[in-house]
Design brief:
It is a single chain. The protein is built from 13 helices and 16 strands. It is of the alpha/beta class. It has 3 domains: about 1-85 and about 275-305, Rossmann fold; about 85-270, 3-Layer(aba) Sandwich (Rossmann fold); about 310-385, 2-Layer Sandwich (Alpha-Beta Plaits).
């Protein structure tokens, strides 16, 4: 069987090259088994009946209807960490841009280009663009995932006093975090203490407006906020007001919009964080690997709507992949169906994530179609397939 994949946005060729001869690209999304996406808005798209999985070549998935996909047994992947270095470098650049009025100085030089006395005048004008060094300043990093850890470590290496806040930090992230980075107890502590505050959390219902009006009011006078995650994480109207009142120094955002564009104290960047050739290549390669492992083995890695689960490469007669709601008694029913059909289960695993779960069963012989049909007929089962 050949899998058909559709690229809803341009995807780096180095990633697409990872598809073997068992895959073919299609321009018809309705015919796709697999989909790759970057920024295309999928909420209003009709999802193909045969769609197995969607891979976002990037971290943010707010353009994908996660619940709708989960209910149809469509696994959604993202590529955490693949673009982390690109975003980290721009976040560090954002701190330098905020600390010293480099942009203002460049604009003055451009506007004065025709003045024959520009060199002499520059010596007088440079005072208005003078700033501060970031060494010795306090940086608070909210969210210590793949990007946040890199930002914290880079800032610590630049002799900043760094603290990090993340109540859900992973073991891997904790191991990667520099010993110089201190632990912050709360977001409020970060806001009160830090000269620079950089936010690196995903946009969810729980994190929307995380840096709210109260947090912004509690910030240290003259503080700078850096947002290279998502604009909706911050109450930007409150930020603009705080900048106008002189309470904040700068707001550096990678998400230009009507609220912030052109406002005094705002350095707005047109979403360049992950827009490097290296980041796009890394994301594409990782997305294709995720899709292939799921299509060929049923394994799930870096999903955002189903649990991660793996049994490696199938070495038995058949593997059955079941995507289902996290319902009591489901596993017992699955095993009973195969037992009644006289099929031995050599190995199996089950994982859940909130309301949804995945079960992989390696069988010593191929399951009868009747058994697979009975499995699919359970009211909590969303999709069944064999690999």
């Amino acid at each position: 069987m050949k899998f058909k994949y559709a690229a809803l946005n341009p995807i780096a060729k180095v990633g697409l090259a990872g598809f073997s001869g068992d895959y073919e690209e299609t321009a018809d999304f309705a015919a796709a088994d697999l989909a790759l996406v970057r920024s295309a808005a999928m909420h209003d798209m009709e999802l193909p009946a045969g769609l197995l999985a969607v891979a976002r070549a990037g971290a943010g998935v707010n353009n994908i209807p996660l619940e709708k996909c989960a209910e149809r047994g469509i696994v959604v992947f993202n590529t955490p960490g693949a673009n982390a270095n690109g975003v980290k470098e721009l976040a560090i650049a954002g701190m330098f841009l905020a600390a010293r009025d480099i942009v203002g100085g460049i604009e003055w030089a451009r506007a004065s280009a025709a003045d024959p006395d520009i060199a002499k005048k520059a010596e007088k004008q440079k005072k208005q663009f003078a700033g501060t060094e970031i060494a010795g300043k306090k940086l608070g990093v909210i969210g210590l995932g793949a990007i946040g850890v890199r930002v914290a470590n880079a800032a610590a290496a630049l002799d900043m006093d760094v603290c990090g806040y993340d109540p859900y930090i992973s073991v891997q992230a904790a191991w990667n975090l520099s010993q110089k980075v201190r632990h912050a107890v709360s977001i409020e502590d970060v806001c009160r203490e830090c000269d620079y505050i950089s936010i690196h959390v995903p946009l969810t219902d729980a994190t929307r407006g995380l840096l709210n009006r109260d947090c912004i009011a509690a910030m240290k006078p003259g503080a700078t906020v850096l947002n290279f995650a998502r604009d909706l994480l911050v109450d930007e109207q409150a930020v603009v007001e705080a900048l106008a009142a002189g309470r904040l120094h700068r707001y550096v955002t990678d998400f230009v919009n009507p609220c912030t564009a052109g406002k005094p104290g705002v350095i707005a960047i047109p979403h360049l964080g992950a827009s490097t050739g290296e980041s796009e290549d890394n994301c594409a390669v990782m997305a294709v690997k995720e899709l292939r492992d799921f299509a060929e083995n049923g394994n799930i890695s870096h999903s955002v709507n189903y649990p991660d689960i793996s049994l490696g490469v199938c070495k038995t007669a058949q593997r059955v992949v079941v995507l289902h709601r996290n319902a009591p008694g489901a596993i017992g029913r699955f095993t009973a169906i195969f037992g009644d059909a006289g099929v031995n289960i050599d190995n199996m695993t089950n994982k859940s994530r909130g309301n949804y779960a995945a079960t992989l069963l390696d069988l010593d012989s191929k399951a009868p179609e009747k058994a697979l049909a009975e499995l699919s007929a359970q009211d909590y089962v969303l999709k069944v397939r064999t690999v």
